[in-house]
């Protein structure tokens, strides 16, 4: 068996800052892992060439075992073509149809919830990742007139919905909560409901429930302890995963895995973006990127190292050896060094 080979796409803003620290952690736990860095894929390249991610880049990514990404996005590039040409292209072309975003309370002091009994969030948001409102299907009619009409289709396919709900049931420990807006959005809503009933029938040992997305968002902040696995469409899952991250202790520490469970290929990235408001100041929290690396390692035969990273993260946060967003006073680099010190 050959060793693990990963591609790394640092991206923009705090992306390169947090990825550098995840790579320092990788070097500490698994220095044998081969790393191929694609540092040309960023907003500057997009502004110059109109295509940040080339076919060659994609081929390099496909030839590796997994991709670790920092963040894509810059205020100088307003066009959605940039994120669509990099992040969404990767998710769509590699058919990474599951976006798995665990939200586990890092420390009681970080919960924004008033009631201590309800703070213990420990759930996974499973976000559909290849269709929904993100397909780019639509258009603008009667542009530049007072009757201008912009249409973005919300696409649900039986194939897409049934496979992501099936995945949610496969990873559930006790319950799957299916989230949609079937009370108002008729066609996709009916399809989500039917795929839910079919999957529930295949998994009689897993309890199941349903919430409309507005109530799901509310419940994530009123009683998140009731959730195990939440499965939702692309746009709903995007929003719910930021809410869940905040309830678990903060966006800066939230990891994610974009997966094709059929091939095992994954794109691992923090849930946060490029945070232009703090980029270059040295305070970006590296834990989301480091925890994403841990997810990558766990999925690729390095479970012990992944576990050690998780334990080290918790321990640094317990001791407030972390960045200001988590109540610490460390820089990005010092926070990662603290994790590495805990590993030793
Ligand atoms: P954001 O996630 O970048 O930032 C939201 C807020 O959280 C900001 O106040 C930021 O300072 C803070 N924050 C985020 N990550 C942090 C960290 N690691 N440590 C401390 N604080 C952190 O969201 P945004 O401002 O809406 O987006 C900025 C850019 O990033 C946009 O171009 C957006 O499209 C892009 N984006 C990219 C991804 C991705 O690449 N996966 C994800 C989300 C947003
Ligand atoms: C995320 C981000 C992206 C998304 C943006 C940058 C297109 O918010 O990964 O959550 O909406 O999927
Ligand atoms: Mn998002």
Automatic annotation (TrEMBL):
Cofactor names: Mg(2+); Mn(2+)
SUPFAM superfamilies: Isocitrate/Isopropylmalate dehydrogenase-like (SSF53659)
InterPro entries: ICDH/IPMDH, IsoPropMal-DH-like_dom
Keywords, in A-Z order: Manganese, Metal-binding, NAD, Oxidoreductase
Molecular function via GO: metal ion binding; oxidoreductase activity
Isopropylmalate dehydrogenase-like domain mapped to chain residues: 5-339
Pfam families: Iso_dh (PF00180)
Source organism, top-level taxon: Bacteria
Protein name: 3-isopropylmalate dehydrogenase
Organism, scientific name: Labedaea rhizosphaerae
């Amino acid at each position: 068996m050959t060793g693990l080979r990963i591609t790394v796409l640092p991206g923009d803003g705090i992306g390169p800052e947090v990825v550098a620290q995840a790579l320092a952690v990788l070097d500490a736990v698994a220095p044998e892992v081969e790393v191929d860095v694609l540092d040309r894929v960023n907003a500057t390249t997009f502004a110059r060439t109109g295509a940040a991610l080339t076919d060659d880049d994609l081929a390099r990514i496909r030839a590796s075992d997994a991709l670790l990404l920092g963040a894509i996005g810059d205020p100088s590039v307003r066009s959605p073509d940039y994120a669509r040409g990099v992040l969404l292209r990767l998710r769509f072309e590699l058919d990474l149809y599951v976006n798995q975003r665990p939200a586990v309370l890092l420390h009681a002091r970080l919960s924004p919830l008033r009631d201590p009994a309800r703070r213990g969030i420990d759930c996974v948001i499973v976000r559909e990742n290849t269709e929904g409102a993100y397909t780019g299907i639509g258009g603008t009619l009667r542009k530049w007139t007072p009757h201008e009409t912009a249409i973005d289709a919300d696409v649900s396919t039986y194939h897409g919905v049934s496979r992501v709900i099936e995945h949610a049931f496969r990873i559930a420990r006790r319950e799957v909560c299916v989230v949609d807006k079937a009370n108002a959005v008729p066609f996709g809503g009916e399809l989500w409901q039917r795929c839910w009933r079919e999957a529930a029938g295949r998994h009689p040992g897993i309890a199941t429930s349903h919430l409309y997305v507005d109530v799901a968002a509310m419940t994530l902040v009123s009683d998140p302890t009731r959730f195990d696995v939440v499965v939702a469409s692309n746009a709903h899952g995007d929003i719910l995963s930021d809410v869940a991250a905040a309830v678990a202790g903060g966006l800066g520490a939230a990891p994610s895995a974009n997966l094709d469970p059929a091939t095992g290929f994954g794109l691992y990235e923090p849930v946060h973006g490029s945070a232009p408001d703090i980029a270059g100041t040295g305070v970006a929290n590296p834990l989301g990127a480091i925890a994403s690396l841990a997810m990558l390692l766990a999925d690729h035969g390095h479970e012990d190292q992944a576990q050690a990273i998780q334990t080290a993260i918790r321990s640094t946060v317990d001791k407030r050896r972390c960045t200001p967003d988590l109540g610490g006073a460390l820089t990005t680099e010092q926070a990662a060094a603290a994790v590495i010190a805990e590993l030793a």
